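SAMPLE LOG
Freezer: B-3
Tube label: C17
Construct: single chain, 373 aa
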Amino acid sequence: MPSVSRADTSVIGRWWWSVDRVTLLALAVLIGIGYVLALAATPGISMHVSDPHTMAMIKQILFLGFGGVTMLGMSMLSLRQVKLAALGLGILFFCLTGFTLLHGVEVDGAHRWISLPGFTIQPSEFLRPAFIIVSGWLIAESHRTPGFPGRRAALGLFLATAVLLKMQPDIGMTFLFTMVVFAQFYLDGMELKWVFVALGAVALALGLAFLFIAHVHTRVELFLHPNKTNAYQAITALSAFGNGGMFGLGPGEGEVKHFLPDARADFVFAVAGEEFGLFFCGFIILVFAAVVLRATMRLLGEPNLFVVLAAGGLIVGFGLQAFVNMASSLSLIPTKGMTLPFISYGGSSVLAISIQMGFLLALTRKRHQGDFS
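STRUCTURE (predicted):
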């Protein structure tokens, strides 16, 4: 394969020598792991294309391929193009998130999905990366333009989004948005007293959710007092790690995927533990950590406040989502239906996280002095 010369001034050449190839490689590894687990987490595979398990596997592999291409395309955007793309996506998926309240598909009492021919989408998944970019843009603009109420605008945008998510309801996504906004304001130099106020508000909101939202109360109670009947999924997932041991039972030899309805999505980490073992799970954790730490290091010394706020928010959202999924599978926290980026089954999740990481790669590219717009 011919190498790309540093003298190459084409779009591909400039992209190759400016993109963070370490982060790019780590994300490619995650997509590869997602491909492996799309095969491993599918029970009773039939060679007939008409078999629903086979169709689900094929769809996931296609989504992973399309997601990878999408991520590469988004990583080539300039800062101005990142802002415009995020603004357009944000407006579209904010409206679609609101649309779910009226005509969304109901699953377990929640209206989070829109049904399309052949598949469903969760608009809030796509809203997240756009929201993070726009929020960072607004906060940064308050420094560039005297008198511009960027911080208040970002806070107002967050509150409007949180209301929509609460109405669906989607407490996990609301929490994720909350922590991202908190991280952005913290990176912007939030005073220490407001840090404690914000943390207190988050703690109060979680307490109220436990007291007044039935399914949140139930999940916390089952986490604190599990039993084989009501906490079946969590207990079964945890036992899968014990079954796998250090090296796993082998690809396709696990049993958890036959008993857990969410084995391919919420509990795919348990499938990895049973079939590939402790070392493979540790490797997955290290790859996620590598993405987070490497991207964070790229921001050290970054002169553009917008890049710091937007990329910082993307990193927090990515890392926190991965942590919640894996910690839920290990029963370290109450179970929460949050996917493992690039690895869990779901077209919305794969495409949304591809856009998010494409934005991150675009923001963390090396730029010349004139590329700070």
